[in-house]
Design brief:
By secondary structure, this protein is of the alpha/beta class. It has 23 helices and 16 strands. It has 3 domains: 3-250, 3-Layer(aba) Sandwich (Rossmann fold), CATH 3.40.50; 255-383, Magnesium chelatase subunit I, C-Terminal domain (Helicase, Ruva Protein, domain 3, Orthogonal Bundle), CATH 1.10.8; 398-500, Arc Repressor Mutant, subunit A (Orthogonal Bundle). It is elongated, with a radius of gyration of 31 Å.
Length: 500
Amino acid sequence: MNNDRRPGTLGELKASGYQPRRIKDELRANLIEKIRSKTLIFPGIYGFDDTVLPDIERAVLSRHNILLLGLRGQAKTRIARMLVNLLDEYTPVVAGSELNDDPMAPISRFAMDLIAEHGDNTPVTWLHRNERYVEKLATPDVSIADLVGDVDPIKAANLRLPYSDERVIHFGLIPRSHRCLFVINELPDLQARIQVSLFNVLQEGDMQIRGFKLRLPLDIEFVFTANPEDYTNRGSIITPLKDRIESQITTHYPDSIEVGRKITEQEARISKEQNDRVKVPSVLKDIIEEIAFVARESELVDKKSGVSARLTISAYENLYSAAERRMLRNGEDRTTARITDFWGVIPALTGKMEMVYEGEQEGPYVVTIQIITEAIKKVFLQYFPDPSKLRKKGQERDPFGVVKAWFSGGNVVDLMTDAPSKKFYAELEAVAGLRKVTETSAVDELEYFTFMELALHGLSAFEQLSRDFIQTKVVFKDPLAGQLGKSTADDDDDMRGLFN
């Protein structure tokens, strides 16, 4: 409805044929319309098409309050916020009302008195759907006064009213959310006695404040989010409250690399300049997603805490930045991200994985390196044969034979993390047989170098090569070179001992 043509008084609103309806009916009616018109209801939410989203739609159609239960980084809050799009674009309220009173069904003393005084001339304003969304993060210090309300002594003094007069009430967030969508995040963090205050609103649809006789027939759509009870040490959802929330919907992490990539690429904050000047090959994007999958399966990472999608998003952003920084330091106009750039991604990973005791003993840095290595290993196997099984299968020719023979000859590859492109590529080209190994995997010239690097990292992950991290470079060599070198040094020490 055009803003200029919307009714401005109660009389005009009646003449327009407006009929009040409860928010759950409003959500239901608008959802039905969107389903019939095949409109996308939750744009940008991936991986939930056959699981979470149908459950949410069924809950809305059933006029249910909703509990979204899942680990961190599973789009719970985003989904809750998108439910606003199922509200009418504008809804009428009594002008000046604290409780968003419907002009045709007022509940507050203020609105009733105003309508009694002005009748059909009562002024009406229009509330946009975005103003009908209220969100509260549950914390242990949240009080009943915050959510429900309390007596306001200043208001009582200014209006010269006794505390028995309901006009001295300062309403909390819940009454102010009348005719709105009210989201409480991390519900288990709310103290049990505060959770009890939600009983009546959910069950009876009304609320009593302090000792006042009035009971507000509130009309609210509640959406709660929480980690599973067993997964948090901070608190739990009390059983009677859980019983009053009609639909409990469990969310989950992406179940495929493809879905994970869609989410990461959508959410990552990559500037146009970065996107234009830094190319991130598809295989490196897959490694980023594999890192999250490996971390979620790792015995060193706390599965109860979960590994958020924010891990891959931050890693993706850091990968771009690591390549960009190298490009700027070398005075280059453009560059391609490398696997060695992942060592600049480590700070984006360590803080997003909660370790179990064994992981803490190993140290976050060591665990992160292990997880990155395992992710590289998994992606390597998508393009190359498993080098540890070649002999078992009795193959006549080892495709990595020339490469390994080159390293066995005492050759070493130093991949500097900040090396200019030409120098970096020259190091890879110097490895005999390495380009030949990647011919079936690479698509264009630049991808040859990506797959050549992947081949080296993959062979080291399968212990066919030795890989060492030395400050600003990654060194690949024959796995026996270090042992032989150590043996020779020990022999020299023994000989020196004989002559001392």
